[in-house]
Amino acid sequence: MNCFRRKSIWLSRLVSGVLSGIAFLFPPGLLAAEQTDQTAMPLNFLSKLDAPRDYVSERIVSFATDMDRFFGDERNFQEANKSVLQIDLTKVAGYNGSRNLVLSGKAKLHLPSTEKRLHLLLETDSEKNITGDTTQGQPVVLDKVTAPEKLSLAARYEKQQETRWHLSADAGIQVRRPLEPFVRTRGSYSFPFETWRMKLAESVFWFNTIGVGETTQLDLEHLISEPVLFRASSNATWLHDKQNFDLRQDLSVYQTLNERSALLYQGSAVGVSNPQVQVSEYVLLLLYRYRLHRDWIFFEISPQLHFPKDDNFKSNPSLNMRLEMLFDKSR
Q1: Long-range contact list for 238-245, CB < 8 A, 24+ apart?
Q2: Global pTM?
């Protein structure tokens, strides 16, 4: 430690001495003049690259946001600063399917006179929305409609800078007997580089049902062409009570077909970290989403192949169907 401290002091004195000598031999005015003459052309050349770089970055951000909004993605619900009510009717036939139509939903409402920073949230099964599952609908023979297991009510404080960072903090209760409180906070930051955008999101939460945990998600996005977006999404969710990470890697391609329809091609690997890092399932899916009516009624169908470890990674086909209704200012 003493040796390290002596080296640090010696380096700081050396740097100070060098800077002092430069300032004495070359006055600031002279340095500025020389630097201006020598670097003017390179800097002028590099500055010309700012406009095309900003244009490409803006296209990536805008297209990715539009895709998340069209597909009703959880990213859009968490970060779009608007009031919305979303109702889903979903069904799975085949692997892990049931004979029931599953009803779920969530709502975000601005509270008046809060500059859109304070919201009222209403969610079904809120602890299931922390795993970063991006397969667009988990729960076609129809017997009855199954109501959600839990309903939660929360207040959210939200602050954001458009296209850059977003912060939110929630406190609420799950409405059941007895009442189950929960708190959670989420932050995300995105920055473009070259023809890519990187987005990092971090969530910390406590639910009375599952305890303390955190979720980290990293998205890398690249605009292949105007109608095609590539996204690589890495997700890890840690639960203190289990002392385990739930891991997920998604490779997705979004393709816009026209104003009313789009496709999602996705391959996923799902795994755990305890007792060792291992893959528990692979998933391949194709999702077709169609806007049935204006901007508020959507239908999607998704054939999938699941390769679970419990079945020696044999293929298990399934078919997911979902009807979604959005109630907001869209027409």
Answers
A1: 238/213, 238/214, 239/210, 239/211, 239/212, 239/213, 240/211, 240/212, 240/213, 241/210, 241/211, 241/212, 242/274, 243/274, 244/272, 244/273, 244/274, 245/272, 245/273, 245/274
A2: 0.77
